[in-house]
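Changelog-adjacent note: as of this version, every example in the card shows the full chain rather than a window. The one below runs 271 residues end to end.
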Amino acid sequence: MTTGRTADIRPAIDTTLVKRLVDAQFPQWAGLPLELVDPAGSDHVIHRLGAELSVRLPRHSGAIGQARKESEWLPRLAPHLPVGVGEPGFGYPWPWAVSRWLEGEVATVEALAESSVAAVELAEFLTALQRFAPEDLPAEGTRADLTAGSLADRDRATQAAIADVGDAFDAAAMTELWAAALDAPGWDRPPVWFHGDFHTGNLLTTDGRLSAVIDFGELGLGDPARDLIIAFTLMSADTRAAFRTALDVDDATWTRGRGWALATGLNAYTS
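Full-length structure tokens:
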């Protein structure tokens, strides 16, 4: 359980600490040069380790389960991906991770919004992820770290956000969209894998083409609608249609996906 006191911890993380942790726990990588990646994500401090690796240390308690989850599942999703999980040490309180460095630039709307090729590639990635079925697949709901909240869990916060931004955006349209998403039939098929944080910040491009999907800390099992956020935050109307066709999304799931996009966007805008 995360206590209020634990949730408030923001450990000091600098290159000296990262070097001590790596040298002590992963001697095979000791001595490799370390370089701070700045800016990094909101959840982790990231250092590049040598030419081929990265080190990610959680900034806050909400991200502390990601290293172990990724070390458990990513080697199955990508068999040749080196992942190491480090333990607390030298005053740093949580697990952390070393993984392969991926070259590329963060995806942008300007680069990919009109790319039908990128839209189809993203749909193909999600299709492959949803079909992933290891022999020891956990039953839905048996693993708290793989269980995501529902749209209903976001209702109070989303309605409050709609009220807060009503002067800047069309509150009536947002309220109608949100109500439709809550009323849409739920996922009634076997649970599938979802990335859980499928937005532009977790997509890399090389030479203007999609090259990688990163950050599987929100990986889970259940309703795939959550990953449809990307359709409404990255794509144009034309490429969104190509994405939906390639992924073969039914009306109810698409409507829930719009709800996830609205709730997530409002949370980002009001935070």
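Structural remarks: The first strand starts at residue 34 and ends at 37.
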